Amino acid sequence: MKSSTWKLMMVSALALLISIPAAFAQTPEASFLPVTEPLDVGGTVLEPGTYMIRVVPSSVDRNKVQIMDQDGTKVFATVLTVPHPLKPGEEIPNTTFVYYPAGEGMPRALRTWFEPSMAPSSGGHDIVYTEKRARQLARLASSRVVWYPDDTVITEVEAPPLQIVTPQATVERYVYLPPPPPMISGQVNMPDTASRIPLIALLGLVSVLGAVALRLTRSA
Q: Is the whole model's pTM more than 0.90, yes or no?
């Protein structure tokens, strides 16, 4: 009796411990991207249809996305992005996608993607364009646009040096400055990306061990 109980305890503990690392894994980010007219996404023009946009899994950052078919079997483009942190008072728009206006003879371009299942403080993904295209978009949208050199090849490992072009056509170095986390008096804030699942798993493990120990004590 005691042997089978101990086996049950060990199997339960092992299952719970296995679940903890998985809970810390990067949350998959993906959305369906409906395209009703030619759309420029990081230099790749998509024809009308429905696509999948997803973050390339990485332990370093979430700054590269892929445009794929709906089944996720064919990759049309790998696109560089920069974080779009929400500024104080800024709210995520009702739509998942924000666009630059289309210029004469040019398709409109994807500006920002917000993955709907992510926590609001995770922000979104601003699409990065080549210098020539970024200058066009900055002028059309009267906005600052991040760019990389026209001859850059986007890889899944290294990110090229980035610059910003302003509506006045001036160039600045891009530096990402994350917004400070909100502080609540008397409270320690945990990152929104932290999951409660590991804590629940640990509590479950403690409960299982406690129950088994109590049963063994009573049967002794």
A: no
